[in-house]
Design brief:
Elements (H helix, E strand, L loop, with lengths): L9 H13 L4 H31 L6 H20 L1
């Protein structure tokens, strides 16, 4: 396994330690998990962007009306959860 070294602001380090403790993780394990999650998310995001570009290049586009309706439904669903 490769090693790396980073510098963190004291306040961030304190938050990291508190979060790690609440999850019963060491600082190192909490950092490793956070970095793995970020790398996984980044890879998935890039794949999704590439798939979207390929779809657009094939002419598979959504109308603005469809997009607006999907986001309206999402906003309504979110609003109903927040109001509870």
């Amino acid at each position: 396994m490769a090693q790396t070294q980073i510098s963190l602001d004291t306040a961030i380090l304190e938050q990291l330690d508190a979060t790690a403790a609440s999850l019963s993780l060491s600082r190192e394990d909490a950092l490793r998990e956070a970095i793995e999650n970020l790398a996984t998310w980044g890879a998935r995001f890039r794949e999704d962007v590439e798939a979207g570009i390929a779809s657009a290049e094939r002419g598979e586009l959504l109308s603005s009306e469809v997009v607006e309706e999907e986001f309206r439904a999402l906003r309504e669903a979110y609003s109903s959860k927040v109001e509870c």
